[in-house]
Amino acid sequence: MKVTRIFADAGGESHFGEQTIALRDGGTIGRLSELQAATGIIFRENDGDYNFDWHCAPQRQYIVLLDGNIEIETSDGEKRRFGGGDILLVEDTTGKGHRTRTIDDQSRRSLFVTLD
Asked: Which end of the chain lies in a sparser environment, N or C, as judged by fewer CB atoms within 10 Å?
């Protein structure tokens, strides 16, 4: 399963990366990853005019987009669009951070799975 990472390098610049989570055959219930430790889950809903200027992630966390569409820009200037079903691993807890904006004027729901 593909996950998009947002991380900061040693100089504080944020970048996108890709991570693949290995899945194994779980038989009749499908393909499963290994158990990953998490510290909590946060349910979130944003209005359609949500735009959050430069910020760092408050902690390492997965963000699972349930619906809506956003554009994220990293400090290196790259922009990517994400929508329902996309998974992000946000790890830029220091540095210049990233910014997020809604691109379809629709409300958005997501889950944050916080990590150690």
From this structure: C
